[in-house]
Amino acid sequence: MSDKRITSPADSEIHRGHHISKGNIVAIELFYDDDADLSIIQGRKVAVIGYGSQGHAHSLSLRDSGVDVVIGLREGSKSKAKAEEQGLKVLTASEAAAWADVIMVLAPDTSQASIFTEDIEPNLQDGNALFFGHGLNIHFGLIKAPENVTVAMVAPKGPGHLVRRQFVDGKGVPALIAVHQDPKGEGQALALSYASAIGGGRAGIIKTTFKEETETDLFGEQAVLCGGTEELVKTGFEVMVEAGYAPEMAYFEVLHELKLIVDLMYEGGIARMNYSVSDTAEFGGYVSGPRVIDADTKERMRGILTDIQDGTFVKRLVANVEGGNKELEGLRKENAEHPIEVTGKKLRDLMSWVDRPITETA
Fold first, then answer.
1. CATH number at residue 337
2. Where among 174, 209, 244 does a domain terminate?
3. Least packed by Cβ within 10 Å: which of 37, 105, 187, 303?
4. pLDDT confidence tier of residue 69, bands split at 50, 70 and 90
């Protein structure tokens, strides 16, 4: 078996099947299909709890890989018809958990604890495996599995439609695996087998931990991808409009064109983006970017990370759910009423190439 090494410019390393360190950078382990035994998952009965973006991709790809799979949904779920149209057997979450020996929980984070308590835990048996697509509920102790149950994670690093499309095309999306609880010593082999069955081994399967996956995922969402980007765009819009520029012009410059930049970064990193934009844009970014994101911003980001690590954020998330999502609904309403949303809806009426959300076309 060849040792495939990928070294990044940041002086980190990825070794296949080896865990090494270089300076303060800890390497990660990378596995492929020939490191996994597909027959392991083919010999198990898998229940996928939830049939959303990831649920449909996992279940259909597992089925196509020769795995015996059912879908577990709560009574009255609107996803039942969709799953049955794809030829999948649908049971209640409780029935699916009782039938399976590997249970993959792909329901929303905020629903998982109640589903586990009500539908899964009463049906767990010695030797069962409980899998997750995200580590939040396990890492922060919202779900505590019996000690005789294997607890692991398989998390493709892409949306469900991409995971499925790549699988059908004979390719794959890189996937993370982690093992939290391993009473029989089979956790990693089982996770590798599952990840291979949904196409992860065609691209690369990366070993991580529940802690690392959860905390990095939450930080990325809050500080950069969702929270940080959203506030940057809204603030840029406000500055331009308050200075007397037309809201439509501000919208184009700070929101609409963001996709062009992100696509370039997605395809080839920050260097590709800077190579592709004009010299004026590149130079302006270098001299002005640090005025927007400075040392104080970095320190506040560290505060966000601390709130994630010590459980402060999750406590607030749980309190919101227990309070009937009142805080979330209030924040949604406030955000929807921002002037950039009003301007954007009007301008998107001019863009026939943009797929309109149901909320704008109804």
1. 1.10.1040.10
2. 209
3. 303
4. very high
Active site residues: 134
Q: What's the whole-number average pLDDT of the chain?
A: 92
Which residues have C-beta within 8 Å of that of residue 319, sequence separation ≥ 6? Answer: 327
Give residue 246's Cα distance to chain centre.
36
24 part of a folded domain: no
What is the predicted pLDDT for the residue at 19? 52
Q: What is the pLDDT of residues 206-251, one digit of tens each?
A: 999 999 999 999 999 999 999 999 999 999 999 999 999 999 999 9
* Among 194, 205, 201, 198, CA closest to 61: 198
Distance CA 300, CA 36 (A): 42
Same domain, 334 and 276: yes
C-alpha to C-alpha distance for 271 and 269, rounded to whole angstroms: 5
**Structure-model confidence comparison of residues 97 and 16, the more confident one:** 97
Range of the structural domain that residue 132 is part of = 32-209
**DSSP category for residue 237:** H
Residue ending a domain, among 209, 241, 259, is: 209
- Is 227 found in the same domain as 124? no
For 357, which DSSP code?
P
With beta carbons less than 8 A apart as the criterion, state whether 289 and 270 touch.
no
Span between the terminal Cα atoms of the chain, in Å: 56
Closest by CA position to 214, among listed 159, 158, 155, 151: 155
Residues 259 and 183 in one domain: no
Pair (76, 106) in one structural domain = yes
Same domain membership, residue 352 and residue 237: yes
Which segments of 173-294 does DSSP mark as H helices, in order?
187-197, 200-203, 210-219, 227-242, 247-251, 258-276, 279-292
3-state secondary structure of 329: helix
**Other CB atoms within 10 Å distance of the CB of residue 171:** 11
DSSP, collapsed to helix, strand or coil, labels residue 91 as: strand
| Better-scored residue on pLDDT, 329 or 355 | 329
What is the number of domains present in the chain? 2
* 288 CB-near residues (< 8 Å, 6+ apart): none
pTM to 2 decimals? 0.89
Residues 163, 255 within the same domain: no
